[in-house]
Every structure is written in C-alpha cells, then in structure tokens.
Design a protein that fits this description.
Strand content: under 5%
CATH architecture: Orthogonal Bundle
CATH topology: 434 Repressor (Amino-terminal Domain)
Helix content: 55-70%
Number of helices: 6
Number of strands: 0
Radius of gyration: 17 Å
Largest sheet: none
CATH superfamily: lambda repressor-like DNA-binding domains
Distance between the termini: 54 Å
CATH class: Mainly Alpha
Number of domains: 1
Order of helices and strands: HHHHHH
Shape: elongated
C-alpha cells in the first residue's frame, strides 16, 4: 500500500541531499527542530503547508518532484504567480489575497453592470 507520508518524507530527504544541505541547516532555515524534520523525512509527520512552501523555496522543488503534473506551468503568468506565492512572507500572502479579492469584486461589478 502506498504511504503518502513516507513518500513525501523520502522525497524531501532526497531533494535536501541533492541540494547538499544538512538536516540541521534546513530545519534552522524553515524554523523547526531537527527532530521534527527527521520525523517528516521518515514519514512519521507531515510538514505544515507553510513549512512545505518554505522547503520548496529553499530546496527549489516543485510539485513535479512529487509526481504531480503542474499543468499550464508553461504559461508565463501562472509560473510568475507560483514563484511569487512560494517566495512570499505570510504578510505578503495576506496582502495578495486582499488585492485579488478586491479585483475579483471589481470584475464581477463590471460584468454585471
């Protein structure tokens, strides 16, 4: 049976080693304990979404590395937005969400009027 936690953990571990980064270094960069990262890499724990995105930024991986095809990734706008999101702080992500919500409301008003 396929174990998602083990697959994700082994993939993260492989990508970390490929990037030539020690477990202690990665843990420090994403703000978790080395023990917690070890549990992620052995499939005992899953990373939070925030920590997963930090790992993606540091290790420079994409969902393709986890066997998930990123359709439309060739679209330069989609690629730009994904890079922006992956590298944004929590405060910036909240700001982007508010901007997009406002823009969506304006578009809806324009289309209905």
């Amino acid at each position: 049976m396929f174990d998602d936690k083990k697959f994700i953990g082994k993939t993260i571990q492989s990508l970390r080693k490929k990037a030539n980064i020690k477990q202690s270094e990665l843990a420090e960069k994403i703000g978790i304990s080395e023990k917690h990262l070890s549990k992620i890499e052995t499939g005992k724990n899953l990373p939070s979404l925030n920590n997963f995105l930090k790992m993606a930024q540091i290790l420079k991986f994409s969902l393709n590395d986890f066997g998930i095809k990123e359709e439309n990734i060739d679209d330069k706008y989609t690629e730009f937005l994904l890079k922006l999101i992956y590298s944004a702080s929590d405060k910036e992500k909240r700001a982007y969400c508010e901007i997009l919500k406002t823009q969506n409301n304006i578009i809806k008003m324009y289309n209905n009027g």
